[in-house]
Design brief:
Largest sheet: 6 strands, parallel
CATH class of the largest domain: Alpha Beta
Radius of gyration: 21 Å
Number of strands: 12
Strand content: 15-25%
CATH architecture of the largest domain: 3-Layer(aba) Sandwich
Distance between the termini: 39 Å
Strand order of the largest sheet: 2-1-3-4-5-11
CATH topology of the largest domain: Rossmann fold
Shape: elongated
Length: 321
């Protein structure tokens, strides 16, 4: 008997029942020898340049023995036009949303699992899940504990970690508080929109000796991030960001997943779904890279290990305190 898919963390009881029914029907419909040996997979991405090209290349390399069909979100076949694939893989928030919308209008496609990548956790969980196919993802946000591990590795004398919470990031507050206590760190935080952005930032920077930026579109926009980096630099508080662009903009460090790393993890997850005939829970990226701005570090009087050494040490630690 096939094992029902475990629910993604945000799934409601009704959603869990739908997942089990849909996955069971999908597995039964795709258990034939020829199809299982050479399954057709749809790769849905907005384009095939830049970060998407890197992720797609890693996906193709990581999925031998499959037939891969690349589609833009606007190219998804109309309901009933073609037999459904064995699996739908999406890259980016727009592709994930388009795949769910198409599945909602196509009963056959609604049976097919979706594996999502190159999107933040907030975008994955924001999509309506009612009556949708079984879904899982490797989201770009690493576990919040990994950020604290990087602070301990790179800045071991810094114990007060500043954080601004927004509507999305506040969901991680309990986990980050626990992780900070386990690592002997103290959070200095403020919550938005209860307070104005820059008065809250100023209050946090007055007490913190390192500032941690967590993904939240209500807090970190391109304009606000630039001003926040300037404010932190003036108060000589190093910033740890969550994207490579943050390092180029002036953060001392950033912890992020490169597109080719995301592609490798999504390919691994897709292979698991095809082999095990079940959809595991979504989770954070495990393959990570550390970005380092040497110039800003020197300006703040910081002597740090090189980015490659930090990345290797962090990967070996597996985020454990």
């Amino acid at each position: 008997m096939l094992t029902p898919a475990p629910p993604v963390p945000s799934a409601a009881p009704g959603r869990r029942a739908l997942l089990g029914v849909a996955l069971g029907a999908w597995a039964l419909g795709h258990s034939g020898g020829a199809r299982a040996a050479d399954p057709l997979l749809w790769l849905v991405a907005p384009d095939q340049t830049g970060a998407y090209a890197q992720a797609l290349a890693a996906l193709r390399e990581g999925l031998p023995g499959t037939t891969l069909r690349s589609l833009a979100p606007t190219q998804l076949p109309a309901p009933g036009r073609e037999p459904p694939p064995a699996l739908v893989i999406t890259l980016g928030s727009a592709a994930y949303g388009a795949a769910l919308a198409r599945a909602a209008a196509d009963p056959a496609l609604a049976q097919v699992p979706v594996v999502a990548g190159l999107l933040p956790r907030a975008s994955f969980e924001a999509q309506p899940q009612r009556a949708s196919p079984p879904v899982t993802a490797v989201w770009l946000d690493p576990g919040v504990e990994r950020h604290l591990d990087l602070i301990r590795l790179a800045l071991p004398t810094r114990k007060k970690v500043g954080v601004l919470w927004g509507p999305s990031s506040r969901l991680w507050r309990p986990a980050l508080q626990r992780a900070a206590a386990e690592r002997g760190l103290q959070l200095v935080d403020a919550e938005l929109p209860d307070t104005e952005l820059f008065p809250a930032l100023s209050r946090v920077l007055d007490e913190a000796d390192v500032f941690l930026a967590l993904p939240d579109n209500a807090v970190f926009t391109p304009a606000s991030l630039n001003n926040m980096l300037i404010a932190a630099y003036r108060q000589r508080v190093p910033v740890l960001g969550y994207a490579a662009t943050h390092v180029r903009a002036g953060a001392v460090l950033a912890l992020h997943t490169e597109p080719h790393q995301a592609g490798r993890e999504v390919a691994q997850l897709a292979r698991r779904v095809l082999a095990e005939r079940r959809v595991p829970a979504a989770g954070p990226a495990r393959l990570l890279s550390v970005g380092l701005n040497d110039q800003v570090a020197r300006s703040l009087g910081l002597v740090l290990p090189d980015a490659a050494s930090l990345t290797q040490t962090l990967q070996r630690s597996e985020g454990k305190p």
